[in-house]
Each structure stands twice: as C-alpha cells, then as structure tokens.
Specification:
With 243 residues, the protein is mostly helical. It has a domain at 105-242. It contains seven helices and five strands. A three-stranded mixed beta sheet has the order 3-5-4. It has a two-stranded antiparallel ribbon with strand order 1-2. Helix 3 (105-119) runs parallel beside helix 4 and helix 4 packs across helix 5. The radius of gyration is 59 Å and the shape is rod-shaped.
Length: 243
C-alpha cells in the first residue's frame, strides 16, 4: 500500500524536481559576441559651399544660380571712399579750371620783381626801409659794367612804383637824357607803364609821389640855372615858380 502511494503520488513529484534541477545544471549560457570597435568613416572635407542661391526664372523655367553679395571688406570701403573723394576732387578741379584763380598781390609783386631784374640785368644791392631809391653802375677795369639799384621792397603800390622807377633808369640808360630832370621824367613814365602792363594798382599816393618828385627835379634844375626846360616838364613847374 505504501509502495503504491509512492509510485502514484511522491515518485512523479521527485522525478519532476530532479529533471528540473538537472535541466538547470545542463543549460549552457552562450556568451555574447565581443563587440567590435565602431569604425569611423574617413574625415572627408566638405566641398566649399558656393556663394550662390537658386532662383527660379519668372516664367517658371529651369532654376538659375545667382551669386550672393559678399559683405564689403575694409579695403573695399576704403576704395569706395577714395573713389568718391577723387570724383569730388575732379569736380573741384573742373570748377577751378572754369574759374581762373586770382593772383595775390604779394605773388604778383614777386613775379614783377623777378621779371624786371632778369630782363634788364639789374641786381638789387640793398632793400631800403625808407621810401627812397637810387640807381647806379659800377665799371670794372676790364670794361664790364654792373647795374645796381637800391629801393624799398615792393609791398604796396608806392614801393612798387619806386622800385620800377629805379629799374627805369637802367632801362632807358643812365645819362642818356639831358638835363637830369628829363631823365627823371622818363624813368617815372617807365614805372607807370610797367604798372599798367602788369595790372598793378596806381594809387593816389603814387600819382602824388610822381608829381612831387618831378616838381622837385624841375626846381633843382632851376636853381642850377637851367635855360631851356624840356616841354614834357612844363606841367611840373612848381606853383611858386609860376608866380
């Protein structure tokens, strides 16, 4: 009776436990395959992007590539400013060419001085501080002559007239006209003509100086006993001598 209970009830349970235990012992765990290191793709440089955008033609045709406007660099901005300045400068030169530049009085005086001393071979020995002048020559043993003058530096119509008067003595020739008062007259006439030809102002002071200088020359000639006064000097006879 006990054997029958074992075979019927306990034996199947024991065998089942054995099989369960044996199955767990015989189960093999398959190891997971070793992971290979991930291979990175080669470092390929990206092709340079074109500064173009795709645009579609108004008629819906094939898209066309339009270049992108590059941002202006510092050199481009400087070049643009230089072009603008050049354009303004050219415009200014054009206006200046249409309107001739007026010559300043000081520059005009310097130009006349340089032209006169070269034309007549005269050297300015000294610039005087007073409104007086003198013209003379130096003759050397070999026969050469040196023309010299002293006068105020031309900075006004009066000083320019005196300078040209002394130049006039050499231009007409020292001692060419007799009496001395006639030479003074021609030297002053040379001075006035030179001022007119060069566009220099002949002020009232210049006219007064010419009048008084020639009146003094005539009175000096009268004191020296002149017999025949040249016709050109009759209008310069002093009022006191007319009486």
């Amino acid at each position: 009776m006990q054997l029958m209970l074992w075979d019927w009830l306990a034996k199947p349970i024991v065998e089942g436990l054995r099989k369960l235990a044996g199955g767990s012992r015989s189960r093999e765990v398959t190891p997971a395959p070793a992971q290979r290191p991930e291979r990175r793709p080669p470092n390929r440089r990206k092709p340079p992007q074109s500064n173009q955008v795709t645009t579609t033609s108004p008629a819906g045709g094939t898209p066309s590539a339009a270049p992108l406007a590059e941002p202006p660099t510092s050199s481009a901005r400087a070049q643009r400013r230089a072009n603008i300045a050049k354009t303004k400068g050219d415009a200014g030169l054009t206006r200046a060419a249409r309107r001739p530049k007026r010559e300043k009085a000081a520059d005009k005086y310097d130009r006349v001085i340089a032209e006169m001393v070269v034309r007549y071979g005269v050297k300015v020995r000294r610039w005087r501080t007073s409104m007086s002048g003198v013209a003379y020559e130096i003759e050397y043993r070999d026969g050469t002559r040196k023309r010299l003058i002293e006068s105020p530096r031309p900075r006004s119509p009066l000083s320019m007239a005196i300078f040209l008067h002394e130049i006039g003595h050499h231009a007409i020739g020292l001692g060419k006209y007799k009496p001395r008062c006639l030479e003074e007259y021609h030297a002053w006439m040379f001075s006035l003509r030179a001022m007119e030809e060069n566009g220099l102002e002949i002020s009232d002071k210049v006219r007064t100086r010419v009048q008084r200088s020639l009146e003094y020359a005539v009175s000096k000639a009268a004191r020296r006993g002149i017999k025949n006064l040249p016709t050109e000097l009759h209008k310069y006879i002093p009022e006191r001598m007319r009486r």
